[in-house]
Amino acid sequence: xxxxxxxxxGASQVLTDDxxxxxxxxxxxxxxxxxxxxxxxxxxxxxxxxSMPDVDEASVRASIHMKLRELLERESTPLSAAxxxxxxxxxxxxxxxxGPLQSLLGDPEVTxxxxxxxxxxxxxxxxxxxLTDRRFIDEAHLLRIIDKIVGQVGRRxxxxxxxxxxxxxxxxxxxxxxxxxxxxxxxxxxxxFSQEPYTISDLIAFGTLDQRAGEFxxxxxxxxxxxxxxxxxxxxxxxxxxxxxxxVPDDERIVTIEDAxxxxxxxxxxxxxxxxxxNIEGKGQVSIRDLVRNSLRMRPDRIIVGEVRGxxxxxxxxxxxxxHEGSLSTIHANSPRDSLxxxxxxxxxxxxxxxxxxxxxxxxxxxxxxxxxQRLRDGSRKIVxxxxxxxxxxxxxxxxxxxxxxxxxxxxxxxxxxxxxKGTGLRPKFSTHLDDLGxxxxxxxxxxxPPARR
Length: 454
What we know:
With 454 residues, the protein is α/β, with parallel strands linked by helices.
């Protein structure tokens, strides 16, 4: 008996219509139609078992494989052993995994997955976007995958709350938006994290920075300086934050605060806090600002805020100014100067009536350094500036570049940037503080390197 006959006997007419539509629209023929019908049939037959809380995945997977073997044996369409294995793997991925995205999430070269709609899936490889041949069965299938992802971390997405930030179990960042806000259908964006957390050696190998700058950043973190990592979307801020956080000594108590928990620190004394959106009644929200305030009562040696983007900026600056040295955070900005201007704006969002000069004095006394990242046209991610916050001069915060990226070196025949991170020759004022702590940086660390041309 074919699956079409099976559907006609045991499933609804809607499923039969879906099978006919699949055969009409899917160019690869009956194999895709079989995958589609098997998917719906198993969801219909095992819906209760699949939706049970704390379900044992191993037993469910075994049950699915058993049903698949039974159904495929009844299928009259000629199928090779390889076809049967492919169909079984795809159906299991669709039901227990993340469907068409499963293989993309397992591909180490893929750094971002972007689902524009059920039929259009892009990926980022080496900083460039590529259209894939992956597609979902329909919008309902895509919505089920989105709901599965956000449900794993206690979030929800529906018409009353049509956009959500979440994460995968490995820490990969997820954003989803659906009707009525998404006109073209449900949209899903996943920024992948590597299976093994990157180290400073990896970033040096990628060309994000060089050995000298890596040693300098390590000294700054070990010396308990307050560092702000700035950059645009997708420039690698969280990756760099995760890397430099590894330099925090293992005997310190670290509190991490994030919208969606992404940081993966290897130290033994790490307390991870994650914000919570409001419930369906609009209550129960716990913001980043609430968590920053609470963290001050947890006796932290270090406070690491995944990203500062609102009124929590004031509380973070106050924490940095009241004995919580060595704090780290990221911010969206196009330059170190812009990042300080954004901090001012965020402090004003807190509702506290402070004059601008007072805010700038808070910023200049709290921060020691700003690290600027940029994703270049060739897809590479580079540190393009490391600037010291020297203090106030009149009403202006003084910034002094310690390192700069030399764009004057041009590009090669493949469009890849040839520039390097170079020293300005200026030794930061906080190097005296590092010396007092026994962290000595040789003068070569800050040696001047002129640009290739003017």
